[in-house]
Recover the amino acids of this structure.
């Protein structure tokens, strides 16, 4: 059960990372793109179990 | 290609670059600290020996056994239950690298919360590493986190329910090993580690078990021996003996209704006399200023000098600080006193330890004098530490 919860969490993080990734390409303002890139960094590290 | 798409690709490349650098930094915390066993170590194993549920997991912390030629009692010493409390770990390292046993057995787990050594606590500005000077050169060790790494156990619940009591604590305590005893074989990562330690105490027929900690100087339970009620006589004898050596300790009885603590659960569920010792670590204090490896080593902080002047500090504190040498010395002297107390009560099953540095030796020579140089490690190929 605990392992399932963990992988559900990782799945949610991966989904949010994909949405943020899509938004970087959709967004036209550079400062919003920069903000999305900053948000993406910890999400990727989390999905990869680095941090 | 449109301009904002090109910019997105550039930003992603930058993100990947920063991700790589950050990942490399976080990854460095997964490289184990090197402990160089001395001639007193007769056997080395890992915690999964006592609970196969840990096999291959990052809870596979090393266990060192020092066995004397004569049969006697068994003493278990745990350091690093909280990896941000360096004196406990270093006391164990000194024992493994320097001490020997004449009679009975010593089981030492220097880094009980192995997973907690792979990260630091957020918002604390803790250094990832610190160095202990040797006669020549230095040895570098990781400074870890109070709890296990969230990478190994996440998400935290809103409220942590202790097993088996059902006691409710803050959710973050679910990764605190010293709130998870006795643990369970199929529980969270932290509960599995706790269960393995509990199994070790039972299967090795441990007579006396000591958990080494540190705490913030404003914390009331400090410079203290906490004892399970079965061990109060031994602890009282140890406190008196330490007082005669001008080392002040208070004696605290393990609270009966606060579950999950080592001294409570070990004492209740095993035959071991269970104790916990605390020293004062400025690095953990809420009133501290700049946080650095030097602060860990010296324990000198101007904010705590001000706090001491207005009576907010629970330990004697002046401009000499509370150096790491003093804190490790206190733990080692405390262990010596507890063993003497145990031996007086159980002369039929004594424990005899030799080459255990005294408090005075730690303070005058520094703990580096009792740690082995990297070239003494037969597994070392480079001669460099880490």
């Amino acid at each position: 059960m605990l392992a399932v919860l963990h992988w559900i969490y990782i799945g949610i993080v991966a989904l949010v990372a994909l949405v943020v990734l899509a938004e970087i390409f959709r967004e036209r303002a550079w400062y919003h793109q920069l903000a999305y890139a900053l948000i993406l960094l910890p999400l990727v590290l989390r999905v990869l179990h680095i941090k | 290609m449109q301009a904002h798409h090109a910019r997105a690709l550039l930003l992603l490349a930058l993100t990947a670059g920063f991700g790589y650098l950050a990942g490399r930094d976080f990854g460095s915390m997964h490289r184990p600290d090197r402990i160089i066993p001395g001639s007193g170590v007769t056997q080395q194993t890992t915690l999964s020996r006592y609970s196969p549920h840990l096999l291959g997991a990052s809870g596979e912390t090393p266990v060192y056994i020092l066995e004397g030629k004569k049969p006697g009692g068994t003493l278990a010493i745990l350091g690093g239950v909280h990896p941000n409390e360096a004196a406990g770990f270093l006391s164990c390292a000194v024992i493994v690298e320097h001490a020997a046993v004449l009679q009975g057995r010593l089981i030492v787990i220097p880094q009980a919360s192995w997973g907690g050594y792979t990260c630091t606590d957020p918002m604390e500005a803790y250094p990832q590493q610190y160095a202990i000077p040797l006669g020549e050169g230095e040895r570098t060790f990781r400074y870890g986190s109070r709890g296990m790494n969230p990478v190994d156990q996440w998400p935290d619940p809103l409220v942590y329910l202790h097993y088996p009591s059902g006691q409710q604590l803050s959710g973050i305590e679910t990764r605190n090993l010293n709130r998870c005893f006795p643990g369970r074989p199929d529980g969270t990562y932290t509960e599995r580690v706790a269960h393995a330690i509990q199994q070790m105490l039972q299967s090795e027929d441990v007579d006396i078990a000591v958990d080494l900690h540190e705490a913030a100087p404003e914390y009331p339970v400090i410079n203290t021996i906490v004892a399970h009620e079965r061990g109060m006589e031994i602890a009282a004898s140890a406190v008196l003996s330490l007082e005669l050596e001008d080392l002040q300790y208070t004696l605290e009885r393990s609270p009966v209704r606060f579950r999950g603590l080592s001294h409570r659960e070990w004492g209740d569920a095993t035959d071991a006399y269970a104790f916990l010792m605390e020293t004062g670590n400025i690095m953990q204090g809420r009133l501290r200023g700049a946080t650095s490896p030097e602060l860990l080593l010296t324990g000198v902080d101007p904010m705590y000098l001000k706090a001491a002047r207005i009576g907010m500090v629970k330990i004697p504190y002046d401009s000499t600080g509370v150096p790491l040498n003093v804190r490790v010395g206190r733990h080692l002297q405390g262990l010596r006193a507890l063993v003497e107390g145990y031996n007086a009560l159980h002369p039929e099953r004594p424990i005899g330890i030799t080459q255990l540095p005294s408090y005075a030796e730690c303070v005058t020579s520094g703990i580096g004098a009792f740690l082995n140089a990297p070239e003494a490690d037969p597994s070392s190929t480079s001669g460099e530490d880490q």
